[in-house]
Amino acid sequence: xxxxxTPKGTPEAETSSKKEFIRETIEEKKPSKRKWIRRILxxxxxxxxxxxxxxxxxxxxxxxxxxxxxxxxxxxxxxxxRDSLEAETTAEAxxxxxxxxxxxxxxxxxxxxxxxLVEGYLSSRESEEExxxxxxxxxxxxxxxxSMVTVTSVQASEDIFQQEYVRxxxxxxxxxxxxxxxxxxxxxxxxxxxxxTVLVTLGNKSEYSAxxxxxxxxxxxxxxxxxxxxxxxxxxxYVEPVTxxxxxxxxxxxxxxxxxxxxxxxxxxxxxxxxxxxxxxxxIDMNFQLIQTDIAGSSEATGILVNLDxxxxxxxxxxxxxxxxxxxxxxxxxxxxxxYIERVSNGEAMxxxxxxxxxxxxxxxxxRQLSQGLYISSCVSxxxxxxxxxQNGDILTGIGEETITTTSGxxxxxxxxxxxxxxxxxxxxxxxxxxVEQTFQVKLGER
Length: 447
Prior knowledge:
Layout: H1 11-17, H2 33-68, H3 85-144, E1 148-158, E2 164-178, E3 182-188, H4 189-192, E4 197-201, E5 207-216, E6 221-227, H5 233-238, E7 255-261, E8 268-283, E9 286-296, E10 302-306, E11 312-316, E12 328-333, H6 334-345, E13 351-352, E14 355-360, H7 362-368, E15 373-379, H8 384-388, E16 395-399, E17 402-403, H9 407-414, E18 422-431, E19 434-443, E20 445-446
Antiparallel strand pairs: 1-2, 1-4, 2-3, 3-6, 4-5, 5-6, 7-8, 7-10, 8-9, 9-12, 10-11, 11-12, 13-20, 14-15, 15-16, 16-17, 16-18, 18-19
């Protein structure tokens, strides 16, 4: 642009006309931060809008597309069950409850099943064992019926009106052996002691008269005999003497059969096991083993205990049963009374001192500073020892020339004397100065 006041053609004008125009460059203006934020937000809005439009388009067009391509065959799709946290949580809770109840139910069902199986097994085992034992007992009772008899005492009496009547009682008897002239039968003393007539009924119902051979009131054993010449030949071949076994080998838990009169009537039979064995049961002038069983019987039971070999191991008695065992059958060890049975069978009278004793062993004597022998725990009132002046607490050490340290030694010493004989009995008696020896002259009684 020229100055309007400068004339054309002048140097100033020419100089002015040669000037170049000012060159300008356009620089892009940098967008502001606010503008960038707006652009980003716009893009996000457009993207969301596009996604929504696409989704809406897919949803609206899907049914139509299915109709179009419905006729085309497609491969069957594999499907898997869908999982969801809510469903899983609910399922876990339900499964927990159901699994607990299911587990409890399963355990209860399993327990019941096992119990039923066990009970069934045990029941079958018990049934089988019981059937086997029952069959064995039945067979044994049948076999031993030939060795067992019924002993009946018959005695005439008068009532208060002086009218005569016959009184009879019966008990069990056991065929022991045959002698050259008689059949010997072991039975109870109380029944045959003062009886006018004794009848014996065999297992085949044949009946014979019998006579008393011997008895021992201390053990309650008695033996009666039937003359062989009076017996029918068929009955002689029918009867069979019993076998006396070794009761010292019996143990608790062994099965035994009670025969004779265990239930209060003759004949009866029962079976069970040996509960325990009292190895030091005190009797008069003897100690013996008392075999206690779990067989519930009569309070008046008599008879025998038999092992599974059919051997007699015990003679049933209730005289030594304790109150706490009730009516459980107990028996004297047959091995301890064989000597008495032998002497009674021979009709031999047996001398009696009349004491109950306990053995003072060597170790016990040393420990308690006692004399070795038999400690007298009781002198039977009215017995030979009692009448001679022996006392409870004395220690029996000798009879005559015999030194006594065991009950078997006492029995052997007494067997050498007859009832009514006078013997010297040595004892150790306690005093202020300790035990001192004393001797007594004792007139022996009869068992």
